[in-house]
Specification:
The complex is a heterotetramer of chains A (about 200), B (about 200), C (about 180) and D (about 220).
Chain B lengths: L12 H20 L5 H9 L4 H22 L15 H18 L3 H9 L3 H19 L1 H9 L8 H5 L3 H25 L6
Helix pairs in contact in B: 1-5, 3-9, 5-6
Chain C lengths: L4 H4 L6 H19 L6 H15 L1 H6 L17 H19 L15 H22 L3 H10 L3 H18 L3 H4 L1
Helix pairs in contact in C: 3-5, 7-8
Chain D lengths: L1 H10 L1 H18 L11 H9 L4 E2 L1 H9 L5 E5 L3 H6 L6 E2 L8 H7 L5 E5 L4 H12 L5 E4 L2 H10 L10 H16 L9 H7 L21
Parallel strand pairs in D: 1-5, 2-3, 2-4, 4-5
Classes of the chains: A alpha/beta (about 200), B mainly alpha (about 200), C mainly alpha (about 180), D alpha/beta (about 220).
Subcellular location (chain C): Cell inner membrane
Protein name (chain C): YeeE/YedE family protein
InterPro entries (chain C): Sulf_transp_TsuA/YedE
Chain lengths: ~200, ~200, ~180, ~220
């Protein structure tokens, strides 16, 4: 049983192992921003229209407008009381603490940009982080003659009957003119399995 | 972050190189721990040498503690790891057959490869036996298929089976391992020494 | 004590140290590849390759072989085969460093070499059979399974060692 | 003296080692649990959001479609009726509600094609992009302006006025030609033909992504 006498190596390696764990734990930082909503919850929320609010429906006394455009655009003109917070800054420590404060105070936050599309991403990220008191202003905003105007916006509304455009300028219907019609090739898509694979294994 | 290859951080070509390197280390550790000697291995069943139990349990405890720390620290994604599937009766019956084979032959496949490398002739025969066993299994697969594929419980872990958080299970396993080490030392002192 | 290689031959690592390094190796394996260690898979691949060489027809018709035979690559081209080649090399290095290389049959002085070889073959067959049924051997199922707390791994481990202890009595002459 | 002390410590060396191991295991139990982010963290997601690279302009897309670029895969996120009415050439319909369905994962989560998501505007497409990017799907793009933008730029481009730069005219010419290519404004064209053609079925043989399959290793 010679081997049991030799404990130098095992002692040293155990100490190193414990040290590595200790260092790892001590230097470990918890993720600051954690998703509170799963993807399917987000998808369900996005499918409702609850997060969109019209300018006229905003309860001014209990709401805070936040302009998510860049600073210079904000400086040119903005909604009266609005604060400025470009999309890139929404996860800064100060921003998060501000959102926390507003949430705890029961205030509604209304994001707006040039169009709702612009405010969309910022809203979505914060919604997934659990800030349910944020809404998007369903309006387009623009600067007209140095006055900041808020106009209604038709979100995701098809602007035209697409078929009409084909009919326009095609008054005559002849049967034998397929020559010019571009026949779009049938797209055959073979999706290969991705590089990222689940490990397989076993003995 | 990890595991590196399934997450695509390292390309798949590395897999082979790493396989050889891991094999090298595996073989070295097994051989240096004395697992190339069938009599040392069999000692665990007769109480004169508990190297198998010690190496095996230490490895299991260290790896499980290490992996869960890494998971905690976000260095590895436990969900990406391959969890050995549980086919209840296949595991029990297969394990029982292996147990008889272990005590009769004195090796398990990994250790027999080590013994093959250092020229133990009984290990050569043993490896040949394993291959014969695989051959028999394959030929009799139609008979054994029900057992092989039956009672499938999924790629479950003890966390799923007992519904206890993994950390408590690990703590329990650690205690069991330490008790086993302690008991094995007592047993070894009482049993007549066998020189081999 | 460890002056001559004759003595050195029986001096192995502290089992805790070996186990500790083995544990680190398992962590490393999972960290790199997401899978555990294994050994008997290589032997299965060899068997499949051999049978495939002898009769390709047979491997395709057999439900078990056909799982591992692919048209475009050899069944030998698996992770475990490469790992096992590494095991052979690693064990050889370790063995040569401590002077343990040499062709011999290791057996208890009470039995003959012939008896030892017969039992080795018998044990090998059983282990090969069992490893296929349980989908893994001590390293693949039990050790790597335990590292990720796999229920199957624990069951396999308990089954192996439990039965081995039960049957140890019948084989005692071979070892003690 | 030193030797004796050392011997004392050595006598207990295994107990010390065992307690170290126990402490390590206990540490795991005692460490405060925290919630983990799966896939992409919010910070990384924001960085990707701020980066405008995900947008594809309709001009670029028109170029690619006309050049029959094989690397793009168009995904129409509108519902089936709208899809049946009109869609972009070669687009595949994955209704917005269904983007998380496992059936469509093979299309969205792959490294082979540049996936271009589009809806009527880019609002929905952006939302889908965000949800899918959080899952760490790669190669996803959004058609800037969506179908409305497509209509306004390619199919019905505004005519440049006299005092505009030369590029504007070149762009206009390209758009006109592209519109022609996509079947607009061609005289003596068979309408029925057009109508039947547009909502074509796209045949997509998909290889399923390999799922974690319990495989007999040994």
């Amino acid at each position: 049983m010679k081997e049991l006498e030799k404990t130098k190596r095992i002692s040293i390696s155990t100490v190193i192992f414990i040290l590595v764990i200790l260092i790892g734990v001590l230097t470990f930082k918890k993720p600051t921003n954690v998703y509170k909503k799963t993807n399917s919850e987000t998808l369900a929320m996005v499918n409702t229209q609850d997060y969109l609010v019209d300018y006229t429906d905003v309860d001014q006394s209990n709401s805070v407008f936040i302009d998510i455009r860049e600073r210079f655009e904000y400086s040119k003109g903005h909604i009266g009381e609005a604060l400025n917070m470009p999309t890139a800054d929404i996860l800064e420590e100060q921003s998060i603490s501000m959102f926390d404060g507003l949430r705890d105070a029961g205030k509604t936050i209304v994001f707006y940009g040039k169009t709702p599309n612009e405010a969309n991403s910022a809203w979505m990220i914060l919604y997934q982080l659990g800030y349910e008191n944020i809404k998007i202003l369903n309006s387009a905003t623009q600067l007209v003659d140095n006055r900041f105007e808020v106009t209604n916006y038709d979100l995701e509304k098809p602007i035209a009957n697409y078929l009409e455009i084909f009919n326009n300028g095609n008054p005559e219907n002849s049967e034998d003119t397929q020559v010019l019609a571009p026949v779009t090739p049938k797209k055959v898509i073979a999706v290969k399995k991705k590089k990222k694979r689940k490990p397989e294994g076993g003995c | 972050m990890g595991p590196l290859i399934p997450n695509g951080i390292l390309t798949n070509e590395w897999n082979i190189i790493i396989a050889v390197l891991i094999g090298l280390a595996f073989g070295f550790i097994l051989e240096a721990s004395g697992f190339s000697s069938s009599r040392k291995l069999a000692g665990v069943f007769y109480g004169y040498d508990f190297a198998v139990l010690k190496v095996f349990f230490t490895a299991a405890v260290v790896s499980v503690i290490g992996l869960y720390y890494m998971d905690y620290l976000g260095w590895i994604d436990m969900g990406m790891l391959y969890v050995h599937p549980t086919y209840l009766w296949a595991a029990i019956i297969g394990g029982a057959i292996m147990g008889v084979g272990f005590v009769a032959g004195g090796f398990c496949p990994g250790t027999s490869l080590c013994a093959v490398a250092i020229g133990k002739l009984d290990a050569w025969v043993y490896v040949f036996g394993i291959m014969l066993g695989v051959f028999i299994f394959s030929e009799a697969y139609s008979v054994l298929e029900g057992l092989y594929n039956g009672s499938f419980l999924g790629n479950i872990t003890l966390v799923d089976s007992f519904d206890i958080p993994a950390n408590y299970i690990i703590f329990g396993v650690t205690i069991i391992a330490l008790v086993a080490f302690f008991v094995s030392d007592i047993v070894r002192k009482r049993i007549k020494k066998v020189f081999y | 004590m460890d002056k001559s290689s004759e003595n050195n031959r029986h001096v192995y690592w502290n089992p805790y140290f070996g186990g500790f390094l083995l544990g680190l190796l398992i962590i490393f394996t999972f960290y790199m590849t997401g899978r555990g260690l294994g050994a008997s898979g290589a032997m299965k691949s060899s068997v499949v390759t051999l049978v495939d060489k002898v009769s390709h027809e047979h491997t395709i018709n057999n439900a078990y072989y056909s799982k591992f035979v692919k048209d475009d690559e050899s069944p030998m081209n698996t992770w475990l085969v490469f790992e096992s080649l590494g095991v052979l090399a690693g064990a050889f290095i370790s063995g040569s460093l401590s002077g343990r290389i040499g062709f011999r049959v290791q057996h208890s002085p009470k039995i003959t070499s012939r008896r030892r070889l017969v039992f080795a073959l018998f044990g090998g067959i059983l282990f090969g059979l069992g490893a296929q049924i349980a989908r893994g051997c001590t390293s693949g199922a039990a050790l790597s399974g335990m590292a990720v707390l796999s229920t199957g791994g624990f069951i396999t481990m308990l089954a192996i060692f439990g039965t081995a202890y039960l049957f140890a009595y019948f084989f005692r002459k071979n070892w003690i | 003296m030193i030797n004796r002390n050392l011997a004392k410590i050595l006598a207990k060396r295994y107990i010390i080692l065992a307690s170290l191991l126990l402490i390590a295991a206990l540490g795991l139990v005692l460490l405060p649990a925290y919630q983990k982010n799966e896939h992409v963290t919010a910070e990384d997601l924001l960085a990707k959001v701020v980066n405008p690279e995900r947008y594809v302009t309709s001009d670029d897309l028109a170029h690619k479609i006309i050049a029959k670029d094989p690397s793009i895969l168009l995904i129409d996120l509108r519902d089936e009726e709208e899809y049946a009415e009109y869609t972009l050439a070669g687009a595949l319909n994955i209704p917005f509600d269904a983007i998380l369905n496992a059936d469509y994962e093979a299309y969205l989560n792959q490294g082979q094609y540049d996936v271009v998501l589009f809806s009527n505007d880019d609002f929905k497409a952006d939302q889908a992009w965000l949800i899918l990017t959080r899952l760490d799907y790669k190669n996803l793009h959004v058609l800037k302006g969506g179908i409305n933008g497509w209509y306004n730029t390619i199919l019905n481009p505004p005519e440049p006025t006299e005092n505009m730069a030369k590029e504007a005219f070149e762009r206009y010419d390209f758009r006109k030609a592209a519109a022609m290519y996509f079947g607009v404004g061609i005289k003596a064209q068979d309408n029925e033909q057009q109508l039947n053609r547009t909502p074509k079925k796209v045949v997509v043989p998909v290889m399923k992504k390999k799922k974690r399959k319990p495989e007999g290793g040994c």
